[in-house]
Design brief:
Structural class of chain B: alpha+beta
Order of helices and strands of chain B: HHEEEEEEEHHHEHEEEHHEEH
Strand content of chain A: 15-25%
CATH architecture of chain B: 4-Layer Sandwich
Largest sheet of chain A: 5 strands, antiparallel
Shape of chain A: globular
Largest sheet of chain B: 8 strands, antiparallel
CATH superfamily of chain B: Aminohydrolase, N-terminal nucleophile (Ntn) domain
Strand order of the largest sheet of chain A: 8-1-2-9-10
Largest interface: A-B, 29 and 27 residues
CATH topology of chain A: Glutamine Phosphoribosylpyrophosphate, subunit 1, domain 1
Number of strands of chain A: 10
Distance between the termini of chain B: 62 Å
Structural class of chain A: alpha+beta
Strand content of chain B: 15-25%
Radius of gyration of chain A: 19 Å
Oligomer: heterodimer
Helix content of chain B: 25-40%
Distance between the termini of chain A: 65 Å
Number of helices of chain A: 6
Helix content of chain A: 25-40%
CATH architecture of chain A: 4-Layer Sandwich
CATH topology of chain B: Glutamine Phosphoribosylpyrophosphate, subunit 1, domain 1
CATH class of chain A: Alpha Beta
Number of helices of chain B: 9
Number of domains of chain A: 1
Number of domains of chain B: 1
Number of strands of chain B: 13
Order of helices and strands of chain A: HEEEEHHEEEEHHEEH
Shape of chain B: globular
């Protein structure tokens, strides 16, 4: 004979379980900037990604349990590719994908033995030429950030999304610095310092090797997802120089991108 | 929302179970398992066998290796029996940053197959985070052609020509030195049964391929640069069009020129119509003086 548990208690237990799991991981920040969407994740592994490309103008970021969000990421790529193949590439939208994720995570939360301990963000960058503004004009023409929680609840954010770990200090730090249409170096440095405001011995200084950074580049015509790593990342993270790099210090040999 | 109001098994609101199942990184294999009705050639089982179907056929594709890489080009004609079905069909496609494929045979199937092949490469790259090796790409294409064998037996054959260069290996400090061997352009041909053959220097497929290959045999120069290889390819297509009624020559009146893709270590670039036009006009001008080239 089953033991009775009230629905409220049942949901509370599951939420608590999922929240605890997610809070154990390191944080991820997704924010809009002048040129598109910026993903910054604290990730000490160069191979196990938290940020990924889904489709031409859609990116994915996740926090929580790796095997679960990897499963969702793969499913999202399959879903987007199948839809693009059976209809057209233009018919794959971030809102549609975010809905599909929300439905799936929601049903897993209420029906499965164990809820997914993940939080994900689906970001879509607008077509080339659109200018980010505080006031938008409907989906399809602007950048969109959807945040989907472990229970399937979906929220559209207008500035940034912070997921995983202790999010409060990160959100506070970003709220203080966020500007509409900030440029890439500013946004990246703000995101990195916000990520450093949590964890042990905070505030910490995060090194390029501890970060996973990617952008959705609005100006690109086809696939917009670009990883930022190695020398370009270190250059972007370096404290703002008073003038652009002077050409008076040529290194031996050309630099390889 | 976007998914409301649409009924049936596709599109769906929540992700179907098959999409969440762990599997490999092949899009084609995923489609076969989860959405077989979307595969090119689905429904071919019910076709009457034997009788040739009156559908457009694409014709001649040539590929020429050169010092910096490889050039692949195709004429623009599609024929249906004795009728020219289309004057400006495109049969050469850039498939990813460092490869391209040209297709001869049943046009409708070929275009669909290329769409799937492109997606196959992109899908792998997105799932795995790295690109397939050039040999891996060539083998995937072979598998897809083999999958079309049933259709080929019914007269709907597709014969591709695949050209590419190894894309930049992922920077890896351990293997960096080993991977930095010089990269060269490579050409792969296929038969309808999915047999894959690596060709050296140059190759041609399609109805005019005999004439194109003869022309390439005389003109090929392994030390040439990209513009010279493009010229050689366009000359070969002219020779094919000269002797094969199903291959279209450069159409100066309508300004329809061959599709040319040049693949070097910097990537696969499709030449614009204007750039190819200049080459095609030079070829035609040369033939005004010497019709045999």
């Amino acid at each position: 004979m089953p033991i009775y548990a009230s629905p409220e208690q049942f949901m509370r237990d599951r939420s608590e379980y999922a929240r605890k799991g997610i809070a154990r991981g390191r944080s991820v920040v997704v924010t809009l900037f002048e040129g598109g969407v910026l993903f910054v994740a604290e990730n000490h592994s160069p191979a196990l990604h938290k940020v990924s490309e889904i489709y031409d103008r859609i990116g994915f970021a996740a926090a929580g349990r790796y095997n679960e969000f990897e499963n969702l990421r793969t499913a999202g790529i399959r879903l987007a590719d199948v839809r693009g193949f059976s209809y057209d590439r233009k018919d794959v939208t971030g809102r549609w994908l975010a809905n599909a994720y929300a439905q799936t995570i929601g049903s897993i939360f209420s029906e499965h033995q164990k809820p997914f301990e993940v939080e994900i963000c689906v970001a879509e960058v607008g077509p080339p030429g659109t200018v980010p503004t505080a006031n938008d004009s409907g989906p399809g023409v602007r950048d969109q950030l959807y945040r989907i929680s472990y229970d399937g609840s979906i929220v559209e954010e207008r500035k940034f999304v912070v997921m995983g770990g202790a999010t409060e200090p990160v959100i506070t730090a970003l709220n203080a610095t966020f500007q509409v249409g900030w440029d890439l170096p500013t946004a990246l440095r703000a995101a990195v310092s916000a990520l450093g405001s949590t964890g042990e011995n905070a505030p910490r200084e995060l090194l390029p090797t501890q970060l996973e950074v990617a952008v959705l580049d609005r100006s690109a015509p086809g696939r917009t997802f670009r990883r930022v790593q190695g020398t370009p990342l270190a250059t972007l993270l370096a404290p703002a120089a008073p003038a652009p790099a002077a050409p008076d210090a040529p290194q031996d040999g050309p630099e390889e991108g | 929302m976007t998914v409301d109001g649409q009924v049936g098994r596709w599109p769906v609101s929540a992700i179907p179970a098959a999409y969440m199942r762990p599997g490999n990184s092949s899009f084609t294999e995923f489609l076969t398992a989860a959405e077989p009705h979307l595969l090119p050639g689905h429904g071919a089982a019910g076709l009457p066998s034997g009788g040739p179907l009156a559908v457009p056929h694409g014709t001649t594709i040539v590929a020429v290796a050169c010092q910096q890489g490889v050039v692949i080009a195709g004429d623009r004609r599609a024929t249906m029996g004795n009728i020219i079905a289309q004057r400006d069909i495109e049969k050469v496609f850039v498939t990813d940053t460092h490869s391209a494929v040209g297709i001869a045979g049943t046009a409708g199937l070929a275009v669909e197959l290329v769409r799937l092949f492109r997606l196959e490469l992109e899908h792998y790259e997105k799932i795995e985070g790295i690109r397939l090796s050039l040999d891996g790409k060539a083998n995937r294409l072979a598998t897809m052609i083999r999958g079309n064998l049933g259709m080929a037996m019914q007269g709907l054959a597709v014969v591709p020509l695949f050209a590419g260069i190894e894309s930049e290996p992922v920077p890896d400090p351990v293997f960096e030195t080993a991977q930095r061997s010089p990269r060269r352009g490579r050409i792969f041909s296929y038969d309808v049964a999915g047999g894959k053959y690596e060709e050296h220097d140059y190759y041609a497929v399609g109805s005019g391929s005999t004439f194109a290959r003869s022309a390439l045999k005389k003109r090929y120069d392994g030390s040439s640069d990209v513009p010279t290889a493009v010229r050689t390819a366009v000359e070969a297509l002219y020779d094919a069009a000269d002797d094969d009624s199903a291959t279209g020559g450069p159409d100066l009146t309508r300004r329809i020129f061959p599709v040319v893709v040049a693949i070097t270590v910097e990537g696969a670039v499709r030449w614009s119509d204007d750039e190819v036009g200049v080459v095609a006009e030079a070829v035609v001008a040369g033939r005004m003086v010497n019709p045999g080239g």
